[in-house]
């Protein structure tokens, strides 16, 4: 049920982060499981050096299952969303329309 789905999403999330351990010196992120009642999503906000998708990200087995959107620093909505992800990490807090189940900083 609900616990199984959350645990599965958690394993997917932490596995993704673990395989990117060597990328920590080039990136900062808040990445985790958002949602409730069995409806969970793996989401986050990533900031890395350069533009485009780094090869380290593309080399991940689950890369094709992720959607990345480049934030525009001149767009107030994008800035607010980045701030929301980066500053709100307490379980239950609503970020991008979903409550936080579990998140982790990647730095």
Describe this structure in words.
The chain is an alpha+beta fold and 107 residues long. It has three helices and four strands; from the N terminus they run αββααββ. It is globular.
Summary tags:
globular, 107 residues, alpha+beta, 4-stranded antiparallel sheet
Main sheet makeup: 4 strands, antiparallel
Instruction: Please report which band the strand proportion falls in: under 5%, 5-15%, 15-25%, 25-35%, 35-45% or over 45%.
Output: 25-35%
Strands of the widest sheet, in order across it, are: 2-1-4-3
Order of helices and strands: HEEHHEE
Could you provide a short overview of the structure?
32% of the residues lie in helices and 29% in strands.
How do the helices and strands line up, and which of them pair or pack?
Elements (H helix, E strand, L loop, with lengths): L1 H18 L7 E10 L2 E10 L6 H4 L17 H12 L6 E2 L2 E9 L1
Antiparallel strand pairs: 1-2, 1-4, 3-4
